[in-house]
Amino acid sequence: MAGALALGGGALTLGFRWNRMIVRADSSAAPNFTPTKLIRYNKDNHGLKLTLFQFQTCPFCCKTRAFLDYYGISYDVVEVNSVTKKQLKWSQYKKVPVLVVNGVGKDGFLQLNESSVIMSLLESYLINPKYKLEELKSYYPCIESKEGRKVVYDFPNRYYVMYGADVTKQVYDERKQERKWRFWSDDNLVHVLSPNVYRTMSESLATFRYFSDVGDWEKNFSRFERLMVIYVGATVMYFVGKMLKKKHKLKKDVRESLYDSCREWTRALGTKQPFMGGKNPDLSDLAVYGVLSSIEGCEAFQDALKHTKIGPWYNRTKEAVKNNLGASVPLRK
């Protein structure tokens, strides 16, 4: 099916030429796992039956949950074992988050991969529910490539919100600014986290124990699995953190790189508005908040609160997400 939608910030026609490039990284076999958690909102009238496959403290999973919670969209959670990933054996795509929409599509479910795609696609759907989710997904093609032995997935349109008609100049400009900071959260902010939370072996172990607590690993995994992930994971990630520090050219004291990123965000935010989106959070607020919330219980986050001015904005956004503010705020159309 060829067709066209306007993107918030440009126009693009997608059709058969994209389909030849698509590597869907999907599965035709419906996943069948008992949810580890049910998130329900009494005022949810979106009619979506969602299952989120996640790591509780994965930054990309956190921003996906921030989006769903902000809009008051109910969903089930399946916690994935970060070592064995047995909960994702049904899927060709082995990263998290994976969001499954049940009761949709030719196979009875629709698989949505990658956090920014999930946010953009669902935002597009909320703006204009007349578009089918299957149709919207076709505008977010997945392109596969290889870097050595590593399979790399790219979603070129992941930061674009789709509109069914031409957008106003104001919305065009707002979405353009939003995309800039959404990209920044993935390309800058997220890269300073691991070297900070795994800075020392003791910090790394404390981080994994925090992950175990908030992810209910004691309930969701066997004792052996839980201890293996904690101690093996903490050891491995300590060394990975050192590699990432070098790869992303962070400062000798990686805390300073974390502080720099927090300051860059608060400088751009300024003092005249509570959120980057103005009176209410936009997708960039939710993305940056989600990424930072993944380390909320870690020493690094507490240090960031002490040494930067990120706290007031963070707490405002946390309250907006907790109270499902997006469910009562008009979308930008």
Provide an overview of this structure.
It comes from Lottia gigantea (Giant owl limpet). Belongs to the GST superfamily. Pathway: Lipid metabolism; prostaglandin biosynthesis. The model is unreliable at 9-22 (pLDDT under 50). It contains 13 helices and ten strands. The strands form three sheets. The chain has a five-stranded mixed sheet with strand order 3-5-4-6-7. A three-stranded antiparallel sheet has the order 2-1-10. Strands 8-9 form a two-stranded antiparallel sheet. Helix 2 packs parallel to helix 3 (115-127), helix 2 crosses helix 11 (283-293) and helix 7 packs across helix 9 (223-247). The protein has 333 residues and is α+β, with helices and mostly antiparallel strands. The chain has helices at 16-19, 59-70, 115-127, 133-137, 169-187, 193-197, 201-214, 217-220, 223-247, 254-269, 283-293, 299-307, 310-322; strands at residues 3-7, 10-14, 37-39, 50-54, 75-79, 98-102, 109-113, 143-147, 150-154, 162-163. The chain has two domains: 3-166, Glutaredoxin; 189-324, Up-down Bundle (Glutathione S-transferase Yfyf (Class Pi), Chain A, domain 2). The chain is globular, with a radius of gyration of 20 Å. Helix content is 45%, strand content 14%.
